[in-house]
Amino acid sequence: MTSFLSWHIGLSLLAEIQLALALVLGILYWIQERKLKQKKVFVGESSLPSLETLDKVQYRLLVIGFISLTLGIGMVVLESSLKSKQGWMFLGWSVYGVILYLRRLTGFRGRRVLWYSLIGFALVILASLHGMGIGMMGGAR
Amino acid sequence: MSIVVVGMSHKTAPLSIREKICFSSGSFGQDLKPFEELRKVQGVEEGLILSTCNRVEICAAIKDSGKDHGQDRARAIQNLSNFLKNYHECPHLDFSSYLYCHEGKEAIHHTFRVASSLDSLVVGEPQILGQVKEAYRASQQARALGPMLHRFFNRAFFVAKRVRTETEIGSQSISVGSVAVQLCQKIFKELMNKNILLIGAGEMVEVILEHLIQKKIQSFYIANRSQESVLQLQKRFKHHNILVHTVPFHELGQWLFKMDVVLASTRCPQFILTQSMMEKAIQQRRQHPIFFIDISVPRNIDPSIHNVDNVYLYNIDDLQSIVKENMKYREQEALKAEQIVQEEVDKFYEKMRHRNTWQSACA
Prior knowledge:
The structure holds two protein chains of two kinds.
Chain A: H1 3-38, H2 51-77, H3 86-106, H4 111-140
Helix pairs in contact in A: 1-2, 1-4, 2-3, 3-4
Chain B: E1 2-9, H1 15-21, H2 25-29, H3 33-40, E2 44-51, E3 55-62, H4 69-87, E4 100-103, H5 105-115, H6 127-141, H7 147-166, H8 176-187, E5 196-199, H9 203-214, E6 219-223, H10 227-238, E7 243-246, H11 252-255, E8 261-264, H12 275-284, E9 290-294, E10 311-315, H13 316-362
Parallel strand pairs in B: 5-6, 5-8, 6-7, 8-9, 9-10
Antiparallel strand pairs in B: 1-3, 1-4, 2-3
């Protein structure tokens, strides 16, 4: 395994963890927002953090997850054996890029971020699974 | 030794009667007269006086003569009710129909319920435990407590704590003001750095404002047609070191995007804030959430703004329905609390009975 490949795997894994956490926070935000919109906030519930807290932490995780993913993809460019994986990964990366761009531009948040994150995360995971498949096939040969 | 409780509460006596026999907090702190008088009551070994706005009661440990326990207790109860009458110099007043008298296991049950806020006017309110602790401290300072009541009240505090931790009896807000503030906190982590706008300066706005002040807000904006009410509000909150900024009423739309929380309570017959104003404001503030509380009747904020993303609007009915739901929830939790209290009463009573048997054997 080349050092580029090791860095790529490490950074991608880190990005996936951060983006997964961001996704969880997005779901919690959506639950809290839904309760507030439906005016069913208090009855016998364990309290979730405020929307503001969830949004702040989710945004930070998206930023650092995006940076990790960018660096991870950068390593792939230098590793020719994983070129076929790039397509999915790049698509996922683009979705996260759009989220962050819209966030800066229009304050994009809440439910919409959740849907975009779901798509982005699915693409990133798909790319990783595809990459693992390539790795295993390489190992078998 | 056994325990008796004699007193009256909001459940048994009207205020006009309770006020005649209440012990002012001054009489606890300054002189020890009530306790000195209490110690003179025949049959009473130890005593504690609990006097709050909703109840006045004496909890006493009485010594059994060993012959007829029932008669001893009845006599002590009679002496304690006479003490209440005589101390307050109203010997002609017949308040026997307002008094409750508990003895033995019933007295233990009653005191554990009182300390756990199950017998309060607002079930689950937290003040009563502090008041019982204060009464305990005052009685201790006056040397009116002995080992029996010391053990008993420490157990009562333990039971109250257990009820607080094992149930959610006090977790839900049951006033419109506190519900409004808790809703704010579901959206914003802290309120101290938030921009709060009051439209109108009605009584209800002040109630909610009081709750917001407890959350350490440092300033607020106010838009009102009458400058007089604004000046009154400014004067009122001056001592809290809170800055009050005024917003011209006709420029509300331009200021809206700066605000995080908006409280509306005017007598205006039409909508002051509309959906189009809100859509513009939310874009200007880059989708940062904004929370509206409309407690005016007729409503001042177009209800359709609740459909705008990141805008939340609650009116007086919404707040009151949350209060009602919370009350129901408290009642359910109170049932759990009653079980805990009963369990603890049984344990304490058993221990007390064993101790009494052992002491009689030793004697």
